[in-house]
Amino acid sequence: MDNSTQVVCISIFLNILNVHVNRIPVSGIIKSTEYIPGRFLLASLNKSSELNERQRLVIESKLDSHSIIIDQIAGLVARRIVCNAYEGQNVNSGERFGIIRFGSRVNLYLPLSVHVSAFIGQTVIGGETILAYLQEAPKQLTVKSI
């Protein structure tokens, strides 16, 4: 996805009492990882998504080759992002890939074709709560004459 691609963003704020383990949202392959330096604003602020220090993963889904982007975003207190995923790695949905220390945020960028099942203000549980369903890409059907 480039900057002109429209996406759905699901933003998960983690307060200091939450579990800060981050999990892979979809099975696929890690296409890229990128460290983005930045500030340490309160992670609950929307502008922290663009201004704060973050680690970005791009995963190509095994289901339909959609690109899924995950940003681990540091907060005012959370100044340490740990990301154990690496480019070229095959990953499975639900696997742990990292942790952000204390009050932080995770943004998940999904294709517009998804069906979002989470709602604003919902408390989610890592590895259990389904946030969205990917719509499988239409398959091309070829009919041969006999």
Automatic annotation (TrEMBL):
Keywords: Cell membrane, Decarboxylase, Lipid biosynthesis, Lipid metabolism, Lyase, Membrane, Phospholipid biosynthesis, Phospholipid metabolism, Pyruvate, Zymogen
InterPro entries: PS_Dcarbxylase, PSD-A
Transmembrane segments: none
Gene Ontology terms describing biological process: phospholipid biosynthetic process
A GO molecular-function annotation: phosphatidylserine decarboxylase activity
Tree of life domain: Bacteria
A family per Pfam: PS_Dcarbxylase
PANTHER family in UniProt: ARCHAETIDYLSERINE DECARBOXYLASE PROENZYME-RELATED (PTHR35809:SF1)
Name recorded for this polypeptide: Phosphatidylserine decarboxylase family protein
Organism: Ehrlichia japonica
